Amino acid sequence: MSHNDSSLPEPDIGLCICSNLRRATRAVTQAYDAALRPAGIRASQFSMLALLKKRGELRQSTLADLIGLDGTTLTRNLQPLLKNEWIRIDRDEDQRVRLISLTAEGHRVVGLATPLWQGVQAHFVDSLGSEQWSALLDALNGTGAVARAD
Amino acid sequence: MSHNDSSLPEPDIGLCICSNLRRATRAVTQAYDAALRPAGIRASQFSMLALLKKRGELRQSTLADLIGLDGTTLTRNLQPLLKNEWIRIDRDEDQRVRLISLTAEGHRVVGLATPLWQGVQAHFVDSLGSEQWSALLDALNGTGAVARAD
DNA sequence: AAAAGAAAAATGTATATACATCTTTTATGA
DNA sequence: TCATAAAAGATGTATATACATTTTTCTTTT
Q1: Does the beta carbon of B61 lie under 8 angstroms from any beta carbon of chain A?
Q2: What is the pLDDT of residue A150?
Q3: How close, in Å, is residue B55 to chain A by CA atoms?
Q4: Distance B71 CA to C3 C1' (A)
Q5: CATH number of the domain at B25-148, out of 1.10.10.10, 3.40.1190.10, 3.60.15.10, 1.20.1290.10?
Q6: Does chain B have fewer CB atoms within 10 Å around its N or its C terminus?
Q7: Nucleotides of D under 7 A from a protein CB
Q8: Which of B141, B29, B127 is nearest to A136 (CA)?
Q9: Would an 8 Å CB–CB cutoff place A86 in contact with chain B?
Q10: What is the pLDDT of residues B2-48, one digit of tens each?
Q11: For the packed helices A17-36 and B17-36, what is the interaxial angle rounded to 10 degrees?
């Protein structure tokens, strides 16, 4: 068995906020993806489409801000949605701007997926209990705020 | 502005556990990646190398379990570590099994990265406060457990 | 000992993610 | 007006992620 090079106590990597977040996110994403699979949509895609349904047409950069996604990542993430014809991309008067909106197919898929989302979401909320659930959302908001404050 | 197709209240996607987790994880990962950049290593890579340093040689499948990573993902994630010669992959007596261990370079990089990790981790813990910090870790453990219980 | 089954990892394919840089278009300023 | 700067996206490149399937090796069963 190997030892530390110094006599200082090694920090506990097991408490790393980043790796704990990433591990939990992998597991939760798999659960949501599995629940949404009958609708042929993934969790990350559903969050974009549901936002477009709620807010209507959005600038691409606004969509990126709202989801907290790097702009270049959003450019890539829109491609599968386009390929499935769930969204439409139009130009603004300002020719630099792209306006994203749901197609009829997109509305249909969100409608299909929404009850599936409700089911898995309710399962998590019930299992956690509403107090740990809201503690989680609070902690995530706080943690994200710290990260973005840098 | 578009309305719901039915008169049922629309569920609030803003409270989706999955999308909130994913958003926070993106932001936090960017902060940890930025902090570790001077050592030439990413957060997800650091968590693997730090685990190997702590535990010594591990079976590939054990490593996957410990990080909570799909086995096929780990196969891919090991490639950059191999390319940088931070790890070595040996065969067990059982020729199906791969044994992963740190090289001298790997130890060196972990040593370089550890104080950087400590810095960013301390920043998050301080900013959150220890109570919200432990609430976060508890909630993440609970949530991950729910996800894996399916 | 040969066939069938199980375990471990790799491969094919698709999506998600971000940094550095580039292109296009609009706004500004001398 | 023309040059320069700024805004909005797209592209090149690299990593991260998982499902379905395949390959290799070992174990079990007959």
Answers
A1: no
A2: 75
A3: 8
A4: 29
A5: 1.10.10.10
A6: N
A7: 7-12, 14-21, 24-27
A8: B141
A9: no
A10: 444 444 566 788 899 999 999 999 999 999 999 999 999 999 999 99
A11: 140
